[in-house]
Amino acid sequence: MLPRYRLQFPVEQEHKLEQDEAYFHLIDSGSRRKILFHDYDRIYEKPGLYEQLFYDRLKCTSPKKVAELLQDSLKTEWLSCTELRVLDLGAGNGMMAERLRNLGVARVVGVDIIPEARDAAFRDRPTAYDDYIVADFVNLPEDKREVLAEWRFDCLTSVAALGFGDIPPKAFMTALQLVQKDGWVAFNIKETFLDHSDVSGFSRFIRELIFSEFLDVYRLELYTHRLSMEGVPLKYYALVGRIVSQIPTDFLKSIELETA
């Protein structure tokens, strides 16, 4: 049985915060600690705190939604999840891996930039990952790249991790290049990142990828990712696609030049 924690959200007049500025207070052993929603290292220290905050309190649905759309997309090609070799980018404490295992996925390797995520995954879901590597995918060391390449991944997942600087475009691009031709990609992204009014490099990268010759989109669905602190639904897109040809490195470079 996981412990339960006392959580306090900001008072009403402080609520007008951007999604990446949101925070809560953890009341623990008589102390009151302010923790940002994106302070994942501090959240993972407490068993069950991530789940209580995002899944129980804020009703996050993303691992379930992305896993279901991936399964549905595979069925359209008469394929099964049971032979997939998945690279789970921004793996955190294993929420997505747990869903993938429930679908019968053969192999799942997690990657994250913070060691606290790996520690939490092995603590909370010790059988979810076949391996878990802590690495910065913006500057992935060659020895870790070689280890990952040996898995011959045919699927990349990334849930509740893209945008807001958590996973930069270059890191996502590095992960994409580790997926075999005809492999699958399943991820979610905030609704506004697909809006042409968003001129950030990451937003442009995702839009260009969706409409590129390198990716066939099977599913693109708008849904409620979770609730905000005020109880307002936060809309995300879930996308499942198939890599039809290897994405060249200069694909990202051309976008960076255009947005510079």
List the helices and strands and how they pair.
Blueprint lengths: L5 E3 L14 E6 L2 E6 L3 H5 L4 H9 L4 H15 L8 E5 L5 H8 L4 E6 L2 H10 L6 E4 L7 H8 L3 E6 L10 H8 L2 E12 L10 H10 L4 E13 L5 E11 L6 H10 L1
Parallel strand pairs: 4-5, 4-7, 5-6, 7-8
Antiparallel strand pairs: 1-2, 2-3, 8-10, 9-10
Helix pairs in contact: 8-9
Descriptive tags:
three-stranded antiparallel sheet, Rossmann fold, 32% helix, alpha/beta, 2 domains, seven-stranded mixed sheet, 260 residues
| First-last Cα distance | 50 Å
The CATH topology of the largest domain comes to: Rossmann fold
Outline: globular
Mean of residue pLDDT values: 89
CATH superfamily of the largest domain: Vaccinia Virus protein VP39
Number of domains: 2
Which H/E pattern describes the elements? Answer: EEEHHHEHEHEHEHEHEEH
DSSP helix fraction: 25-40%
Radius of gyration: 18 Å
Low-confidence stretches: none
Strand content: 25-35%
Structural class: alpha/beta
Brief synopsis:
By secondary structure, the chain is α/β, with parallel strands linked by helices. It has helices spanning 40-44, 49-57, 62-76, 95-102, 115-124, 142-149, 169-176, 201-210, 250-259, and strands at 6-8, 23-28, 31-36, 85-89, 107-112, 131-134, 153-158, 179-190, 215-227, 233-243.
